[in-house]
Write a structure and sequence with these properties.
single chain; alpha/beta; Metallo-beta-lactamase, Chain A; 8-stranded mixed sheet; 5-stranded mixed sheet; 13 strands
Length: 251
């Protein structure tokens, strides 16, 4: 009996890993989808078109527990954020209760005005909030400095600032129960051949910032970049390589 129980637990664990490697996609419309990583975690992917970059996708995360959800980064505008939030409610029977903002760019907080209109708490680094005030953007409701850990229906969620990189205020979000790290635009996908938009970047600190993340989490299972496909901790190492190449190119 004990042996059978052990085999069952191993089997269920393997299914969970398999789901992360072969995620299931839920198409919302031509510009939006949810990709299920594990039972309670979805990557939301939205598409935008610009003159400079053409058609490109941006990633965020949805963490679901007991009918409630946390969103990490909004789509780039209020309309898409509303559509995603209403889809969670109408199709998945999930109510959004918190938003975590990765940094001050629109692909993180472009839908904050809508989030505030439905009275959902929004959490951000104090540096992000200060920048929102400077740029006359909507102001997140809850601030933190170095780190914030809170309980979400029985599981911990950790927001942490390790230093500058893509922007001077970028944070990561760690979900210890699932060992998923949301790196946002601080972390590049494996298909990235450069660091992308460097308008607000802190290139001189970027490598050290990512190395601190690697040193802090030894059991990362899945890493979500701000754009492109998810991966493992290899995305962190790849980002460090790209930063080193960028520094060498400017010498």
């Amino acid at each position: 009996m004990k042996r059978n129980l052990i085999l069952l637990l191993l089997f269920l664990g393997s299914l969970s890993v398999l789901n992360a490697k072969n995620p299931k996609s839920i198409i919302i419309d031509d510009d939006m989808e949810l990709i299920q990583i594990v039972d309670s975690v979805y990557m939301h992917v939205t598409w935008e078109t610009s003159e400079k970059y053409g058609r490109f996708s941006s990633n965020g995360l949805i963490y679901v527990k007991h009918g409630e959800a946390i969103m990490i980064d909004t789509p780039a505008n209020n309309n898409k954020t509303k559509k995603l939030t209403e889809f969670l409610k109408d199709s998945l029977n999930v109510t959004l209760t918190k938003l975590i903002i990765g940094h001050f760019h629109s692909d993180c907080l472009g839908g904050l005005e809508y989030i505030q209109s439905i009275e959902v708490e929004s959490i951000a680094n104090k540096l992000t909030i200060d920048k929102c005030k400077e740029l006359d953007l909507p102001i997140p409701s809850t601030s933190f400095e170095d780190s914030l850990v809170f309980n979400f229906n029985g599981v911990n969620v950790e927001c942490r600032f390790f230093g500058g990189g893509h922007t001077y205020d970028n944070i990561i979000v760690w979900l210890p129960e699932t060992r998923i790290l949301f790196g946002g635009c601080l972390i590049k996908s494996m298909r990235s051949r450069g660091l992308g938009n460097l308008t607000d970047a802190v290139v001189e600190d970027w490598e050290q910032t990512v190395q601190k993340i690697l040193d802090s989490y030894s059991d990362i299972r899945v890493v979500i970049p701000g754009h492109g496909s998810m991966g493992g901790e290899d995305l962190l190492k790849h980002t460090i390589d790209l930063v080193q190449k960028e520094k060498n190119a400017t010498l």
